[in-house]
Design brief:
alpha+beta
Length: 312
């Protein structure tokens, strides 16, 4: 089993958020319970994404925290014109706050921010003054500061294609109940089943391919040399490495209760690690074969998950 870094920005931020009240929840558990990494979606004629089209990170991380027995305040603005600076200053007097999605292209403490325009991200804010906000950024930047004018551009997130409104944030977390491990697992299975059931429906509505169909269509594009340079870059730097870590964490999560699901997710992790290597090596013929195998395993996983009878 792999233990190491991954692009778990909202899960890492949420784990720090929980830590602020003396609680311990691993980012891996929060990532799994968010459900974001389940399923496959291909929007338009571009690259594949190893996530469903139902659980965007902002909604999904709230679901995960609630499943674990936490309450918190969620805020968003009705207008993108005015950053809620005074409200945020009051919040940060007594609580940390998850900010997101934010646009990584404006996070100027990152030496490579200029290459990340339009990439979504989440950070934990812990202090603010007249000129800067101070954050823990889980992308390797603890205790950094960001000028408030850059915060406004990043937090408005004009180029991020999801979100319930501009300037979203979470604060004032509390533990209100302590569900058992069995209850958390039961709720998670119901939630995961819901995600798969809805993904196909929503895909049809928005013209996106999902599941095995998305994978097969993308394999055809690879075989015909129709994958754009941008799509290849997305695979090299994001999709496969993140997908492998997520599959690894799902495998560990299912291990105790559903060995078959655990083994399928482990197999996916192995295939996705191979896919990453093949993409970087530009062995696209072999990549197509590996993705075909991944599609078979994904279909088997979905069928096995949906066949589980959840006891009420």
């Amino acid at each position: 089993m792999y233990i190491g870094n991954g692009a778990y920005c909202y899960a890492n931020s949420a784990s720090m958020f929980v830590k602020g009240i003396g609680e311990e929840v691993s980012p891996s558990l929060l990532e799994v319970l968010s459900g974001v990494g389940l399923g496959v979606t291909m929007y338009g004629n571009g690259s594949i994404f190893l996530h469903n089209n139902t659980a965007d990170p902002d909604v999904a991380i709230s679901n995960a925290l609630k499943m674990l027995g936490y309450s918190f305040v969620e805020e968003k603005s009705n207008s993108a014109d005015v950053m809620p600076m005074n409200e945020l200053k009051e919040v940060l007097k007594t609580s940390t706050a998850i900010l997101g999605p934010v646009d990584m292209g404006y996070l100027t403490y990152s030496p490579n921010h200029q290459y990340a325009k339009g990439a979504d991200h989440y950070v934990l804010a812990y202090d603010i003054d007249e000129h800067f906000i101070y954050v823990h950024d889980p992308a390797s930047f603890p205790y950094v500061r960001l000028p408030l004018e850059k915060l406004e551009l990043a937090w408005k997130a004009d180029d991020i294609p999801y979100g319930r409104g501009p300037f979203q944030y979470w604060h004032s977390i509390q533990k209100i109940n302590t569900p058992s491990e069995v209850e958390i697992y039961r709720q998670s299975i119901e939630y995961f089943q819901h995600l798969y059931e809805e993904t196909g429906k929503i895909g049809t509505q928005i013209g996106a391919k999902t599941g095995r169909e998305a994978i097969d269509h993308f394999v055809e594009k690879i075989q015909n040399g129709q994958v754009s340079e941008a799509a290849v870059g997305n695979l090299k730097y994001f999709v496969f490495q993140l997908g492998a870590k997520r599959a690894n964490d799902f495998s560990r999560y299912f291990e105790k209760n559903h060995r078959d699901l655990s083994e399928l997710k482990k197999k996916q992790a192995e295939i996705l690690g191979l896919c990453h290597s093949l993409t970087v090596e530009e062995e696209f013929k072999e990549l197509a074969k590996a993705l075909q195998e991944f599609g078979k395993v994904e279909e088997e996983f979905e069928n096995s998950l949906l066949s589980i009878k959840v006891l009420v």
